[in-house]
Amino acid sequence: MSHPADTPSIPLAPEVLRNATLPDGRRADIHLADGRVTALVDQPDKADQPDRADTGRGPAAGPGSIDLGGALVLPALVDGHAHLDKTLLGAPWQPHPTSATLREHIANERALRVSTGVPVTDRATALAHRMVSLGTGHVRSHVDIDPDVRLDGLRELVEVREKFRDRLGIQIVAFPQSGVVTAPGVADLLDAALSEGADLIGGLDPAGFDGDVDGQLDIVFGLAERHGAGVDIHLHDGGVTGTRQLRDIAERTAALGLDGTVTVSHAYALGEVDATELDRTATALATAGVAIMTNGPRHSMPPVLRLREHGVRVFAGSDNIRDTWWPYGTADMLERATIIGLQGDLMSDGELRHAASMITDEAAAALGLTDYGLAPGCRADLVVIAAGGVPEAVAAHPRRLLVLHGGRVVGPAPENDFPDFPAVSVTGGDAFAPQGER
Known about the structure:
The chain is α/β, with parallel strands linked by helices. It folds into 2 domains: about 15-70 and about 380-425, Urease, subunit C, domain 1, CATH 2.30.40.10; about 75-365, Alpha-Beta Barrel (TIM Barrel). It has 12 helices and 17 strands. It has an 8-stranded parallel beta sheet. A 5-stranded mixed beta sheet has the order 3-2-1-4-17, with no helix packed on it.
């Protein structure tokens, strides 16, 4: 990628992001050093304080500053649930196989992953690049562990995690896509996965798929306790069958002192039960510190505002991105917030801000990320967005103008090239010319 001759180059490690709009609406200069935010300097009234360097309100800017022209700056977006190993990005288009049941989906996927001919590393790399270009700085990815693929997908995803360690933080969940109790040898494979690079242990519909709630949860929570790992369980089971399992998970979480380290992904049941059952289950989840992940499904979406009132942490993830489960998906977490807003009837500016929190601070907290945010001392994992504020960013499908990871520029994609935003000017620093993997 090249820049026009009359456009200053973008600093590779900018020292100051000038004239930024912060999430709370303030205009400020964001000072960076050693991969961290070092100061937020509110912009003075130009009539009263024409010389910013003499205000005494923060360090003066040196070479390598970027004038953002009022563009919004957020902490890096967080994708709380993805399947990097499943994506078909980087492979030729595959017709989407229709499936009536969960087991049919799984069978279709197992057949296709043999015939695709494109390694997990290539496909996951293509998706990871797209995530980075759209401002995602951290992702939790599930990886299939089953009798066929065994630990192969995990090992390939660990390789991708290492390749992207300076651009994208990747958490890995050992995910028993073919069941835990009913799939021979999977319990031992999950145990091995937690010793070979997986960060969390997953589960899948203890009642609806394995038909043995206690059997699956004994294994999952036993491995979590043994390895000191977090838990992230897929739960599609609906109605009171689902809410009973949610309370079972909450009870085990509390008993083992795992507050803040357990997530239930999807939890469709919360959108299907009556108010009494919902309130009872939400209270149990909040008390135990169990988080809920949603991707804004077209059916049975957990009621995010009601859960928030109960104190349940609810965050967002992409889930499937162009794979055998779902032909759609862009990896754009701002688009995901839009989808959640539409599905959840989030309309006011305050509600749009809540949708944004599900892809930023709430997701970061659920993933246990430290030093996340815009406060001085936080990691400089940031995204600059062509919007004047958070509600607009959720509603308007804005471009990403600049992406930083550890204070270094890692994006955007060529189609979002910085010179396309006329309000931005750049001074000093090294040229940034992002290139894809060779």
